[in-house]
Specification:
The protein contains 18 helices and 15 strands. By secondary structure, the chain is α/β, with parallel strands linked by helices. Strands 1-4-5-15-10-11-14 form a seven-stranded mixed sheet, sandwiched between helices. β12 and β13 form a beta hairpin.
Length: about 450
């Protein structure tokens, strides 16, 4: 049996897939502070117009420029692997495949969109990008992309991750980026938070506020903001993952998978793998598609579907999504990339439609799954990725109990070689599981009552 299903560079998709074109019920529009829909021009101080056009596009297929492909060839096509040793360990009749996105230079799926965003910004005449990062994977990916394309890069890194993951910060510095802990004293948003909560571990919402503030206040007008997840154009760029995986499963003699799994914080790696398969489900294919999140940050599994800001300082448009509230400050769990208060609107609407079946796991269960993975497949996965691994193990054990052959596909979204402090804490018995109390959920979401209401709309087919 083939353990690695490889593609040629000529097999790399030449177009991205836009799930918005096939979503059965269109997204609710982003709203401005006055409650009216946001026009593309209103986003211009934050993003270049060529990316805004992708953000609002309803075209099913969008061409990938050759210049972007020539950079992606550094690691694409990424291999699809069969987890035969995990299968044997679990004694499961399921066949487990994983799309290995750890092959990129920064070690995760993030450069798939970082390169695209940096290229489109440069085409628009932008010279500097600002961004936020949680665990540091997005920040290192954008630093990498900016270095290749000759742009300056400024990264606001969530303070707890800045302290826990110093090597991610060093990676950014090697690629020429300026990385600071957030909240910082460099922005009005950061200073305000520090005055109120000097010992805060930080949050992605705070870091986003700082990055946007620096972008829109640049008097030269040559700075823009770059986001690593959540928005439509980011998820669009990541669909190269699922499009490659579809070809690879076909080469492996498989039809469509029975189960598709990805960890989900903002939604980019999950959507990148899952959306090309969700399109098949819309057209009648039977499959279970599972986004997995931490129980400590239960956006998809416990939060309300509502209009909310994407950042703490309320500078972004209002998005209709599952949200824990823009004031949410997550506990300092080690899966730093999964601590965002919201979720990509496209992922959220797919949940509303019934196309996806989200679930949440505690971090100790995920680290146990990561150790099982390391003992069988050999690789050390990122703490975020361990959530997908844990769900895949559960589904493989379920297949064994049911005596059913199933094809399980997961996204191996990144390696954990920069995240060994979390493994160290787990092995030393220092990690505790945390489940967000109901009273905290109510406290953080109370401000949503003062915002426009998000109507839940769905076709009811799934």
């Amino acid at each position: 049996m083939e353990q690695k299903i490889l593609l040629k560079e000529s097999d790399v998709p030449r177009q991205w897939y836009n799930f918005a074109a096939d979503l059965p019920t269109p997204l609710l529009p982003p709203l401005g502070p006055d409650g009216n829909p946001v026009s593309p021009d209103m986003l211009a101080p934050v993003f270049p117009m060529n990316l805004i056009e992708q953000e609002v596009s309803q075209e099913r297929w969008i061409d990938i420029p050759d210049e972007i492909l020539n950079i992606l060839y550094r690691w694409r096509p990424a291999p699809l692997k069969r987890a035969v040793y995990l299968e044997q360990h679990l004694k499961t009749p399921a066949r487990i495949y994983y799309k290995d996105e750890s092959y990129s230079p920064p070690g995760s799926h993030k450069p798939n969109t970082a390169v695209a965003q940096a290229w489109y910004n440069k085409q628009f005449g932008i010279k500097r990008l600002t961004t936020e990062t949680g665990a540091g994977q997005w920040g290192s990916a954008l630093a990498f992309a900016c270095k290749l394309l000759g742009l300056e890069c400024k990264v606001f890194m969530v303070r707890i991750s800045f302290e826990q993951k110093p090597f991610r910060k060093i990676m950014m510095q090697v690629w020429g980026a300026n990385c600071v802990a957030s909240p910082s004293s460099e922005t009005n948003a950061g200073r305000k938070v520090l005055e109120q909560m000097p010992d805060t571990p930080g949050s992605l919402g705070i870091a986003i506020s700082e990055a946007i503030e620096q972008a829109v206040t640049d008097p030269s007008g040559t700075t823009r903001y770059s986001l690593g997840s959540v928005l439509n154009h980011v998820l669009l760029h990541q669909t190269i993952i699922g499009l490659e995986a579809k070809k690879q499963l076909e080469y492996a003699g498989e039809k469509l998978p029975d189960v598709v799994i990805g960890c989900a914080g903002g939604g980019s790696n999950f959507a990148g793998l899952a959306f090309p398969f969700a399109a098949e489900k819309i057209n009648g294919a039977e499959m279970t598609i599972i986004p997995v999140e931490p129980a400590a940050c239960p956006t998809m599994t416990r939060a309300p579907f509502a209009y909310d800001f994407g950042d703490t300082a309320c500078t972004t448009p209002l998005l209709a999504m599952y949200t824990l509230g823009h004031a949410f400050v997550p506990p300092p769990i080690h899966a730093g990339g999964l601590r965002y208060h919201g979720m990509a609107p496209l992922v959220c609407q797919a949940i509303v439609e019934g196309l996806l079946e989200p679930r949440s796991y505690h971090q100790n269960k995920c680290y146990e799954a990561a150790l099982t993975w390391a003992a069988t497949e050999g690789a050390i996965c990122a703490p975020e990725t361990s959530h997908a691994v844990a769900a895949a193990i559960d589904e493989a054990q379920k297949a064994r109990e049911e005596g059913k052959e199933k094809v399980i596909l997961l996204n191996y979204s990144g390696h954990g070689l920069m995240d060994l402090s979390g493994y160290d804490a787990f092995l030393a018995g220092k990690l505790t599981d945390y489940e967000l109390p109901d009273e905290d959920l109510q406290k953080f979401t109370k401000e949503l009552e003062n915002l426009p209401k998000a109507e839940i709309r769905k076709t009811g087919k799934w």
